[in-house]
Amino acid sequence: MTEIFQLLRDTASRLSAAGIDDAQVEAEIILSELLGVSRGAILSCRRNTIPLARLEEILRRRTAREPLQYILGEAHFMNLVLEVAPGVLIPRPETELLVEWICRNAPRDARICDVGTGSGAIALSVAYERPDVQVTALEISLEAFAVAERNRRRYSLNNVTIHISDLFAAANGHFDVIAANLPYVAESEYETLQPEVKNYEPKLALTSGADGLTLIRRMIAEVPDYLKTGGALIMELGAAQSKTVLPLLKRFEDCGIIKDYSGFDRHVFGRLKS
User: Fold this and answer.
1) What pLDDT digit, counting tens, does each position of 25-82 carry?
2) Burial level of 38, CB count in 10 A (0-12/13-18/19+)?
3) Domain 79-272 maps to which CATH number in 3.30.300.30, 3.40.50.300, 2.40.128.110, 3.40.50.150?
């Protein structure tokens, strides 16, 4: 057994003992980050090339259930590596399904609006995958706005503009697609969230009223003023919220649901009626 294999096993064991799911995967991510190699190349490295003090600091924070993305300062999303920091929601894999839907369905040279952009995950990924489109990203949090702007600059995405805005306050004109991943966690559900979420991620980006739908209801009411006739609205929701939200889309047609990787209803979409 090589020293690096033993270190990898010990790291995974400490993470697992702290109640962390996918401890082996996270151990590989941590060591690959410290070694500057891919996960597949870890076992070919030498133990003495790892900064053990830094490893210990990462493990101290992670076993206290601080999200690994905050510790490392970045999150992988689609084909981008995005800066994330406390005060900014960590982008989730299921949100990639929303981006893929937009990239498939947005018309050529579309104007797209991302409401509540956070780190910029949706807006920047769409702009990166579809350089023909123009994306307006709106965000109410000053901290998240700053992170999103740094991410935009990292990839020189000049087809994205980011504004500080309460929903559509800073929006101009009409859009072909409006996307949103707004807070949707109910207050009662918030207390049951994993420590990584409840203790570290911003509550502003997670909850919205007793049933989690206060902002979503408000946005649905405002969307027709900013969406072109026939334009598409797509939103991310909690797993049990589609039955409540779909009836609110009275001014929309061709509505549908996208399920996430676990089979839960995760996104709803529709087109504005003429």
Assistant:
1) 999 999 999 998 988 889 888 767 788 999 999 999 999 999 999 999 999 999 999 9
2) exposed
3) 3.40.50.150
Are 212 and 185 spatial neighbours (Cβ–Cβ below 8 Å)?
yes
User: How do beta strands 252-259 and 227-236 pair?
Assistant: unpaired
> Is the CB of residue 117 less than 8 Å from the CB of residue 168?
no
Structure tokens at 129: 């995958």
DSSP H helices, 64-180, are 68-72, 95-105, 121-129, 142-154
Residue carrying structure tokens 């909850």: 207
Contact 121, 178 (CB under 8 A): no
- Six-digit token string for 142: 């000053």
pTM beyond 0.90: the answer is yes
Domains of the chain, by residue range, sit at 3-64, 79-272
Q: Write out the two tokens for 61.
A: 């924070």
The DSSP code sequence of 234-247 is EEE--TT-HHHHGG
